[in-house]
Amino acid sequence: MLHLHAFRKAYHQHLVLQIDAFTIRPGVYWLRGRNGSGKSSLLTALAGITAFEGNVHLDQVSLRQQPVAYRRLVNFAEAEPIFPPFLTGTELIQLVKAAKQAPAHQEVFYLESMGMNDYVNQPVGSYSSGMLKKLSLVLAFLGQPRCLLLDEPLTTLEVDALPVLYDWIARLSQQTQAVVLLSSHQPLEAGGLLTGPAIVVAQTTIRFTA
Amino acid sequence: MSRPLTRVLINVIAADFYRQHTGLLLSLFILLVSNFFYTSVLNQTHLTQPQIIQNALKLVLTSVSEPLGVVILVGICWLYCHKCWQYVTGRLHRPDVYFLRYTATALPRRRQHQSWAWVQLIMMLPLWSIGLFASVIGFRFGHWLVPTLLPLYLSGLVGYSGWRYSRLLDAPTQQPSPGKLDRFRGWPKPFFSLFLYELVLNRRLSYGLAKLASFASIGLAYSILANDLTGLRLVGLLSVCSAVSHAMLLYQSSEFERFYLRFGRNLPYSRWQVFGQQGAQLGVLLLPELLGLVGVGGLSDGLWAGSLLLGLSLLFRSLLYRLGSQSVVYLRWVFGLFIGCLVGLLFDLTVWLALGSIVIAGALSYYYYEQV
User: Fold this and answer.
1) Is A72 in contact with B268 (Cβ distance < 8 A)?
2) A12 lies within 8 A of chain B by CB
3) What is the dihedral of CA B258, B263, B264, B265, to 10 degrees?
4) Which of A22, A45, B121, B193 has the most other CB atoms within 10 Å of its CB?
5) For B54-94, how does the pLDDT look when each residue is reduced to its tens digit (9 = 90+)?
6) In degrees rounded to 5, what are phi and psi of residue A16?
7) Which candidate in A46, A63, A86 is best for mutational testing of the B interface (most B CBs within 10 A)?
8) Residues of chain B whose C-beta is under 8 A from some C-beta in A?
9) pTM, whole model, 2 decimals?
């Protein structure tokens, strides 16, 4: 369960989000909102990447008091991933696996199902945006996340890759009772994937749709 | 200059050039102001005012009258332009300026060339100030050939650079050379080492300049003060000089982390681990200087001086968590800390400076890392 308490995110003096209290139970949720409404700001703050006021708990683990344990449980994939161009996909995977204490060979399933074995040993500087996106998604599934935050996971992804991604999300959600937040401007085609109401980001706050 | 493409290019390319090279340009400016434009010479009371002025302008006059001086001045201009070309080539491969490849290239080649020439003209403003000053002084003292040719040479560089950049933008993008990237394939790449690989692969010039400045300042301080200062104070001074020489490299490390290692902030590293990673990165980066300090000062003094070098560098790096991309403010802090350290060394406080800088760096890193 993900709980936001007295959450406030602002850029300089510009308030982006203010959430007094909000609880998200395990399940897969579609995070909706207009451009600039604060979806990415919310996700990067929940991932522990950008600063905010207030606190966030995943189950009993606090981002403020136990940042290392929290980050081990919360994984994130950026909308437009950027990595050092000289690193290969494999090197990035090993780096994230070591940090997130992922089981041995965990990446094999993800690389095979997404058809990435042909280029994962190449430097990411030679990747297309779609290949980079796939790599960032693989990195987000490494370890044993109890919360998965995917910012615009569908953009730049080829059509054949969508069912694969939906399958990964469904497996994670069923096996670990994780909280999965997917931000997207397009309606998610996999109807059975979403287990809860959509979460709307608007007017500097968030709410569940009726 | 009022054309939309020119405005965009100046904002995106020229302004960023000055942001990225603040340290280099500041050093160049200080060097020039103190020497090239007007060299103060002591004990000239026996000379007349015109003779004093002529002495003070000797360096600039040499650069427009003596063959060696002319070669050096022309060479500096060429090297500066080379740096500009290298910077623009790298900048045009960054994703945030890709839009130029399918927008600016639709304009007539002549318009593109003009816009890029403006950009180069602005990036070369320091050279223009030197060149025009040299020409005016040259004419005033009766030299005609070089002062006449110098502005033409600079104009030629502007024109050629404009042509070069417009061609560069028009050329199909090249994939990174596999040979270049393959060189370190299979080498271990822990998180702290990523900026070191970046230095070796893509920022060799910055690295070379920082090392040159570091060794030059150490050599200069040692040759001048070895007889007056001894022991810990001497090696402490060398440490401070070396740390300041690496200040812009540390700024680049911070920018690299901000841009390419954003994903790392989601990795479960504790604040102390992050601080330790900084220490490990700087330990490798400063290894030649650390060994040199032990060599000059002996084991005990060398280790304290090495601690001061590491501590001060860590302090500079930690400051950037608080200051972000404000390079000018950062350099003011570096300068202030440099002066503070010099005063501390005068009072033989090397050990306290070493311990203090490490403690303050740790505290800054601990507090501000989560605040970014």
Assistant:
1) yes
2) no
3) 80
4) A45
5) 777 778 888 888 888 899 889 989 999 998 998 898 888 87
6) -105, -45
7) A86
8) 95, 175-176, 178, 181, 184-185, 189-191, 194, 197-198, 201-202, 256, 259-263, 265-271, 370-372
9) 0.78
At A25 the pLDDT is 94
pLDDT value, residue B96: 80
* DSSP output for A38-81: SHHHHHHHHTTSS--EEEEEETTEETTT-HHHHHHHEEEE-SS-
Q: What is the ipTM of this complex?
A: 0.91
pLDDT-derived band at B173 (thresholds 50, 70, 90) equals low
Q: How many domains does chain B have?
A: 2
Higher pLDDT, A138 or B212: A138
Mean per-residue pLDDT for A59-70?
93
Question: Do residues B162 and B208 both lie within one domain?
Answer: no
User: Quick check: B191 and B264 in contact, CB under 8 A?
Assistant: yes
| Tokens standing for residue B109 | 């080649």
Domain termination residue (choose one: B178, B204, B239): B178
Cβ separation B268–A126 shorter than 8 A: no
Contact list, B181 vs chain A (CB under 8 Å): 85-86, 123, 125
Cβ neighbors of B147 (< 8 A, separation 6 or more) are B64, B134, B135, B136, B138, B139
Chain B positions touching A99 (Cβ under 8 A) are 191, 267-269
CB nearest to B371's CB, from A49, A51, A85:
A51
B231, B288: one domain: yes
Average pLDDT over residues B348-361: 94
Q: Among A55, A79, A82, A81, which Cα is nearest to A67's? A: A55
